[in-house]
Each structure stands twice: as structure tokens, then as C-alpha cells.
Specification:
This protein has 153 residues and is α+β, with helices and mostly antiparallel strands. 46% of the residues lie in helices and 27% in strands. The chain contains four helices and five strands. It has a five-stranded mixed barrel with strand order 1-2-3-5-4.
Length: 153
């Protein structure tokens, strides 16, 4: 058993290198967390910790690194993420400018300074002048539902 523990430092170095190689070969954060866990386990092996302690350190430090650092790392890896029109419009209030009738493939709403093609989420007809809520976007069409009790006359 002592022979195995003496070589565990090198096993953890190999795990760390393999995880780093896999990370370098992929475009997303996939395995760097295992390198961090292997580093912790390697240090434990160097200082003579048991195999059980090394394995527990590897698992828990890898999970902690994944949970704690992934959101932060993703923000810095792709800082050029710009919200789309859909992000700004979803949940927003729009005014129906052309009666929405899914059967006739007709309807438009005005929101955020622009007129958008619109369809009813539930398939019902929504007359011009109604206030609606944007539920989702498919292509260049907004899917909307009436706002309860609000009508522009």
C-alpha cells in the first residue's frame, strides 16, 4: 500500500495533465475543474494523505471549482455577448396596430419604437388597439397574449 501511495503524486500529475490537455482541445470549459481537483489531491498525496482523503479532495474540489468558478469564467471568456431584440422585448407590453388573426396570417404590434409582425399565442383574434404581452419570438414574429383588462380606445 505504501508503494501505491508513493506513486500517487505522479498519478495526480497525469490526471491534471490529461484534464488540461482535454481542456485545450475543446472550445468550452469542460475539464479544467478536474485539473484543479487533481492539484489538490496531488498536494495531499505529497504530504502523505491516505488514498481516501486524496479521492475525496479530488471530487469535492473539482465540484467546488465547477460550481464556484464556471459562471465567472464564462463571463470573461465571451464578454461580447450582446442582448438581442428578443431579450429586450420578451415580457414587454406592446400595442396591437393591426388585428392579430393567426388564421389569416395577419397582425402587427408596436413595441420599443418598432412595428413587428405578431401572432396570438393561443390562436385567438386580438383586435387593434389592445395591449398585449410579448411571450416569445420565432424568427421575426412576436407571439403575444392579451393583457388582462387593458384596452386602448
Amino acid at each position: 500500500m505504501e508503494m501505491i501511495l508513493a506513486h500517487m503524486v505522479w498519478v495526480w500529475v497525469a490526471v491534471m495533465a490529461l484534464a488540461a490537455f482535454i481542456e485545450a482541445a475543446t472550445p468550452m470549459l469542460v475539464s479544467i475543474w478536474f485539473s484543479v481537483g487533481a492539484l489538490a489531491a496531488m498536494l495531499a498525496a505529497y504530504f502523505g494523505a491516505s488514498l481516501t482523503v486524496q479521492l475525496l479532495l479530488f471530487v469535492f474540489v473539482s465540484i467546488a471549482a465547477l460550481v464556484g468558478l464556471r459562471p465567472l469564467a464564462r463571463r470573461f471568456i465571451d464578454p461580447h455577448i450582446v442582448p438581442t431584440n428578443a431579450d429586450r422585448l420578451l415580457g414587454g407590453e406592446a400595442q396591437v396596430t393591426e388585428t392579430i388573426d393567426n388564421d389569416r396570417a395577419a397582425g402587427a404590434v408596436y413595441i420599443d419604437g418598432k412595428t413587428w409582425t405578431a401572432r396570438s399565442e393561443d390562436g385567438g383574434v386580438i383586435p387593434a388597439g389592445e395591449q398585449v404581452e410579448v411571450v416569445r419570438m420565432e424568427g421575426v414574429k412576436l407571439f403575444v397574449r392579451p393583457r388582462a383588462g387593458v384596452t386602448v380606445g
